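#structure-requests
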Amino acid sequence: MTISLQGVSVSRGIAIGQVHIIQHDQLDVREYKIRNSQLENETTRLNDAIANARQQLRAIRDHIPTSTSVDISAFIDTHLLMLEDNALTEEPKRIIKERLCNAEWALKLQRDALVNVFDEMADAYLSTRRDDVDHVVNRILRILLKQKPLLHEVPDDHLKKKVIIADDLTPADTVLMQHYGIAAFATEFGGPTSHTAILARSLGIPAIIGLHNAQRFIQNNDLAIIDGTSGTVLINPDKKTQAFYERKQKEVKRYYSSLGKLKNAPAESIDGISVELMANIELPKDFETVRNVGAKGVGLYRTEFLYMNRETPPDEEEHFETYLSVLKALRGLPLTIRTLDLGADKQVDGAGKQAGPVMSNPALGLRAIRLCLKEPELFSPQLRAILRASAFGPVRIMIPMLTNVQEMQQVLQMIDDLKAGLDAEEIDYDTDIEIGGMIEVPAAAVCADIFAKKLDFLSIGTNDLIQYTMAIDRVNDEVNYLYDPLHPAVLRLIQATIKAGKKANIPVAMCGEMAGEIEHTQLLLGLGLREFSVHPANLLEIKKIINDTDIGSLCDLTKKILNATSGAEIKVLLQELQPETA
């Protein structure tokens, strides 16, 4: 009998293969007391385990083919950096000494403390970084507990063409298994913005998450079909169903192969309307993928990584050198730098000291521009560095989470003051540097016309805009079913922002996940969006849809959609817009 399970797609594609279930052993970490005379030995045990974990990760990184994009190895490098962080190397030693407890227990206590910090984060992308803490700590714990190496880390071909089913996967797991030739994977947990999900998209592995309780219905060696587009997993399909997906799989491969031809083609609709396609990047190494897909520049460069895994915030020079290296790599392509988007309620080591009590509603607390304006000593070095970098290439400044005009005026005044300081020191910068704001709070979208009069560009951050409009936490399994990009309120806020930009004659981009979802591309075009900033893995497919669309013909249907009263009604209307894709 065929079993059908539904999860959340994070990487499209079709895969057919036998199931291999990966079960990460439950680590039984217990506390036991040690004597003062055992302190040195316990500390040595911890040091040796960390060194061993470092060696394991380096060996995994060495398995990555040299032809693979450098941003893949960057995920392993992130975990290696965490193994150098005092939060994992020194703090557990303090706990060992203070509590006279074993290394495993001290490490567990520190892991729990770090995870609690990440759990309080309002930003979904950053909150899923808790997974990285878990993955790194569990690797060390396995060594301390003298557990055998995980079977999937043994280098042989037993995973080739297998469909992996697991509770969750680490980035190291994903890289290794791709190297060993897995067909696809599905996990019971994980988030669409986790490093594992991002890696799956970068590596082109069909992947599904949120397949809750899957292992109750799936056994090793079952035949599985992974439909990475719909998020469906079929177990032991009949011959007719299998034949259908085998044909579909061939079509998908031909489709993705054809996308490569679009790299140097313009993004232009059938009726001659040009659209700018930019890329979202996080790490300096990501710039190679920007050029590989023919992006016109970077529409969102996240800078939060500069503040992670450290005790003090980066200084002006570190900011400057980082931005300068990216500009050099982009070779003339424009770079939009989003200023710090962290919060006092969600500290990541180098973002400054926590002030005041932990927020019960961190998403509504002191974050992004609110934090930066409250702590100018954190904000000024970044702004000054961006200004200095603008002398070496096209740079734009983008301010996150603007809510009211006063915030905008404070930022603009701060930038003017910093410019005056640079003038006094005779330091070059782009005197006409563009300054824009992210529209990701309903209040900002409603007042987009006011912001548009004072700023050079706007960029719609749909992830938070939808979350705040719907009053839900999008990473909370209990309510994330309400996260709906097609809710009439969301679409009206998007349209209002685009109209405000058009009236003020400034560009409006979209850099949230919605911009990279192909089922929404034509709707966004119909709403008037002319600048998309997406994950590089999605860019060529978005370009194909644009090139195959007559934007003028979308007007009537777009009006119907805007007059609809529910997301369900809009989804039905959207079926008329769906492009032919994989």
